[in-house]
């Protein structure tokens, strides 16, 4: 609450002071307003009630919030005003209001006893009408501070003027109604609190909660009440909107007052500005409780300030009472004095009991506020998260997609790894051997070109002839009818070829590899074996055989290059032999696997199998072409040896 | 031996060179198999080893060419320098002759590779401290003078073996990131695996990896 607000109150108070009838009317208005403390609130409540979708908790929170706000803001204003020590006769109204408030809230807490107490008090009070009026006069003449020490007495007396008796009864009834409403609402609030308690405690621990500013509260409340637009009315703190309400020149007083009360109800911009010290001390306590709950200011600081204020007040009051009471007593008389004391005591009880109750209620409300409102915070945070949620969910969705993709990829990769011939060829170092062989071949070509460039005339022609001859030597024979070559024959041929080349290489590894595959194939239980597995094994075998072939071709190239004495023709012949033998081996392997796959077709007539068979032959052709390429790459190596 | 086929972004070609018996094949074996091969046969021409490593979050397949150290293969192995992104030049700290030949190996490397090729000098057999013939200091000085990375390692114990291979890879990767190494050049020794199907977020990965790249 800023100073502008409190200044507002002051000016308003001064305006109100000018009218003597005001306290009465304010009181009446107060009573009415207690029934409907806030027109807006009522509107909201009715609206929310009308709305079948609206949850009960919403209403509760609205009620709760509005009531609490009233208290809080009132306390704030009053304490500030009291600090300013602006004294005026309007203090009576304040007391009236506060008292009625207290009564109301007392009723909320424990209706029957309080009511009975109130009746008692009223009865007593009726008996001492005259005293009251006198006291009214006196109290008005008295310094405001004096009243502070005897809040209850004076307050109660002021209330029960004869004219107001009827209205008081009416008020009582109304209060009773209100009480029921509020009781139920408080209960609901408590239920809500429990709910919210269970809801989510994590966010409640959030230390950054700041309920100090009305705006925040407002926004929080808004959030809480699920974007209820009507809520905005209730929490309009704008001083400018309040200011006209306090203009005494506008309209009738009743209107003016109703405006005041309405404003007070909604934002505490009330006629209570020049609160008595007693009220201020009460309210400061309340304020302390409330504001502590709200976290409006440092609770310790507030408490300290309050304590200091109270001490000061007590001291000053003590002095003034001492001075005033003697002058008061003689004029009223001794018997009256007793009565007054009785009333005073009773009033004290009522007020203090009311205050206790009010404090309890306040504390409880604050608990609810604190616990319920962090719920708002929580909800707000939740809403905030919801704003961020698309991002989060998007992230999650993306993560999921990525995971799915990766799974697909890994499956793909797995399938590729399982099926892709090239990959298998690479894995078995076939590719890198081929690459190395290429490098060797290139190196030899460069060497030959350099040599060729250095030659001229007859030597050059001779050189070219030699080159061509070697190329011819390495030409593969046309498709021979060596289909029925056995593995044993292949082994023999390879061995012979290696010997002719006179290099220390061996195809044992290659042959062993094939034999292992053959054993696997023969041992294969066709009933169990999946055609895909069989196909995979075929590809794997082909890739492995080809890789080994590449390695040997590469080694042959290296060894030929470091060989001391070259016999190019033999080497070429051997290489051709090796090449044809290896391609024959590849053919055998492919045929064998296809045969097995074909038997699967007979079993299940799966059309996919024919595709797999085709693939096996395709990769076999691939293997053969690699082998033949390797031979071509070796030609420069042979040529280098020939010159 | 065989990692996943396409689960790497780059292929770096390494070549291991150095005199016969300095432990080139053993270093490779230690790196790829994490085992020490006690009686390693003479390498014929070149042998290969592969391992997929992680550099700054990038999977890199190292294709390592382990060349024969025998002098008779020198001509053959010279063919293999081409396109090496990294060259591990190995000498034996217990045999000064292997150290003395480094300049020859170095000149071969310089002549046969491209300027961006990372050359890493490895003084192997550092476990044989008692038989040390080449001090760390002089080798270190040699490396510094020639702008080489240097480490003393042991293929037997595995000391610094991993480091040598990984540091080289990091340096190469850095060169790529800096743009010093042109991936499009045929002889860069680096093959960039084009985004394999479904791996379309590779560029993002690169971006992300650049950020938390510690090298």
TrEMBL record, chain A:
Taxonomic superkingdom: Eukaryota
Which keywords fit this entry according to its UniProt record?
Coiled coil, Phosphoprotein
Transmembrane parts of this sequence = none
Chain spans, region Disordered: 1-23, 71-93, 220-259
Coiled coil ranges (UniProt) are 393-454
Q: Which InterPro entries match?
A: DUF719
* The keyword NADP belongs to this UniProt entry's keyword annotation: no
Q: Where is the composition biased (Basic and acidic residues)?
A: 71-81, 220-234
The record's PANTHER family line, in alphabetical order, gives: FI01459P (PTHR12842:SF6)
Q: By what name is this protein known?
A: Protein FAM114A2
Instruction: Write down the species.
Output: Cryptolaemus montrouzieri
UniProtKB/TrEMBL annotation, chain B:
Kindly give the membrane topology term recorded for this protein.
Lipid-anchor
Q: Where are the transmembrane segments?
A: none
Please, which domain of life does this record's source organism belong to? Eukaryota
Which chemical reaction does it catalyze? Answer: GTP + H2O = GDP + phosphate + H(+)
GO cellular component terms given for this protein: early endosome membrane; Golgi apparatus; recycling endosome
Q: Name one GO molecular function term.
A: G protein activity
Q: Where in the cell is it found?
A: Cytoplasmic vesicle; Early endosome membrane; Golgi apparatus, trans-Golgi network membrane; Recycling endosome
Would the keyword Membrane be found if you checked this record's keyword annotation? yes
What EC number(s) is this enzyme filed under?
3.6.5.2
Question: Which biological process, per GO, is one annotated for this protein?
Answer: protein transport
This one is known as: Ras-related protein Rab-14
